[in-house]
Amino acid sequence: MNLPDEVMSLDFIHDQLPGRIVFGAGRRHGAPGEILALGPSGVLIIGGAHDANMISDLASALDVPTETIIGVRPHVPAETVRDALVTVDRLQPNVVVTVGGGSATGLGKMIARDRVVALVTVPTTSAGSEMTPIWGTTEGGVKQTGRSLRVLPSVVIYDPELTIGLPQAVTVNSAFNALAHCVEALWLTDTSPIAAEAAVSAIGSIICCVENVAARLDDIDARAQLLYGAHRAGTVLASAGTGLLHKTAHVLGGMFDLDHGAMYAVLTPHMVGHHLITTPTAQPWLTDALGPHPKAALDELANRLGAPRSLAEIDF
Ligand code: NAD
Fold it and tell me: What is the mean pLDDT of the chain?
């Protein structure tokens, strides 16, 4: 990294958030021990249908009252949250576990926002939500988001083996979600140099890994690198926050129920092009991360990976 002094403002605030990170192939097998260490009196496990086997194995390994909710919906509809809270109020768990993408994590976060529970998260996409104190829910076509330390997971377990079955399109689009967390940090005015440097470094590694994974979906090392990139992108989002890119995706996602990752694949190159013109301070950071032509670099990446290039291409 070789940036002019005036770009690196050494007058900043950076929130370093708490939480335990457990990372590695096969680490899901340690999940019961991680959960039991939290002293559970009851456990609710939430996840998608593709993770049903892991969820039922986990439920049977816990020697405390445990229930499961299998099936989550994108953008965390408010009625899904209300239904889950009915289960929570009956079971009275003090630990909630989520297994899956940002939709599963998001439902767990809404429960943690509204009830006193510790959250354990096992992410399977590159959404990065598990590292942020940001919650989101959708009602009547409007997605609302907010921040609360209550929704921050106590433990995050990353197991790249769980991402092997993630289809090519989800893998690619979700990687653009992680890239979006990083590039947006580079034009927000109060991003700390800690977050900006982490963002630049994560961008290069996410681009390299997603190309390797796209070439071979069962490459466990590339999957691990991509999952690690997503973790770093989540920490950047947690620190730097959101701007025009994330807010545009939230409005479109809430209104039209569009696939979250696919939206970022479409929007991110355009937003980079826009901020290269409107936010001169972002230019050195963006060129450091993406080369002399940052928008073209992302356009070419999206083309190489077969990502959607317009909102009209996204199913909804
Ligand atoms: P998602 O959770 O809906 O998952 C995307 C797709 O991947 C789904 O079709 C799902 O079925 C599939 N999938 C997930 N795990 C799988 C597995 N193990 N095997 C096979 N398929 C699998 O979507 P997402 O893109 O991960 O997350 C999007 C949601 O997360 C949005 O609601 C977004 O607002 C939220 N989000 C929140 C934050 C935050 O900080 N609060 C950050 C990023 C995203």
Answer: 95
